[in-house]
Amino acid sequence: GKEDAKNKEYKVGVDTTYPPFEFEENGKQKGIDIDLITEIAKKEGFKIKLEPMDFKGIIPALQANELDIAIAGMSITEERKKVVDFSDPYFKAGLTLVVAKNNNNITTPDDLKGKTIAVKKGTTGAKFAEDLAKKKNAKVVQFNDSPSMFQEVANGNADVLIEDYPVVAYAIAQKDLGLKIVGDRLNGDQYGIAVLKGENEEVLKKINKGLKDLKKSGKYDEIVKKYLKE
Ligand code: GLN
């Protein structure tokens, strides 16, 4: 926008619950994404207001001008680039298959013939599952948030789920969910911070500058290590 960035409060869309990138603890939003955007805003001199929402609503909210920025473990894709501009990549993730601990017959996408795949609406995992389902005659069931999707596989209603590797690895390390990661990563998805396409060069420039400075100063590594101990 044309407004002076100093006086503007940017509305930042974040996923409701996507640890270690964003989650609520004692009524406060925390996580790698939250710390990154907070530090970038501090360094580049703009104000932010966090707006947690279901992931599927984030890009539509940018398009409706209800959000200015989105940081939500959002993968940079060619399809999304038609409607948003992304910052430089800030985290390498990638999708993985996840099954119930006692399931020993799924390790690759080839094993999904006739299976039920749980996904989260609007994600790259959902897109991957839909493409695969056509080829393998599999069924896709959609959820609004990651915990509901995890639950569906843990309780045996779905055979497998597709989620970002670092997110599900973190969840399993925190707590026994009755789930396990199988096979190799399915792709090399990288996260970017998004703004509405063609209208936010000024803030995007600040975001990229802030990211670069956080990497140079070691603050980026410090933030990531705070949540991912190893
Ligand atoms: N990285 C995935 C995507 O961009 C999932 C993001 C999420 O669930 N918050 O679609």
Describe the model.
It is a single chain. The protein has 230 residues and is an alpha/beta fold. It has two domains: 9-92 and 190-227, D-Maltodextrin-Binding Protein, domain 2; 95-182, D-Maltodextrin-Binding Protein, domain 2 (3-Layer(aba) Sandwich), CATH 3.40.190.10. The protein is 35% helix and 25% strand. A five-stranded mixed β-sheet has the order 4-1-5-14-6. A five-stranded mixed β-sheet has the order 10-9-11-8-12, sandwiched between helices. A two-stranded antiparallel ribbon has the order 2-3. Strand 2 and strand 3 (28-30) form a beta hairpin. Helix 1 (32-44) packs across helix 7. The radius of gyration is 18 Å and the shape is globular. Residues 15, 18, 55, 72-75, 93, 120, 123-124, 164, 189 line the site of glutamine.
Distinctive features:
binds glutamine, globular, 14 strands, alpha/beta, D-Maltodextrin-Binding Protein, domain 2, 230 residues, five-stranded mixed β-sheet
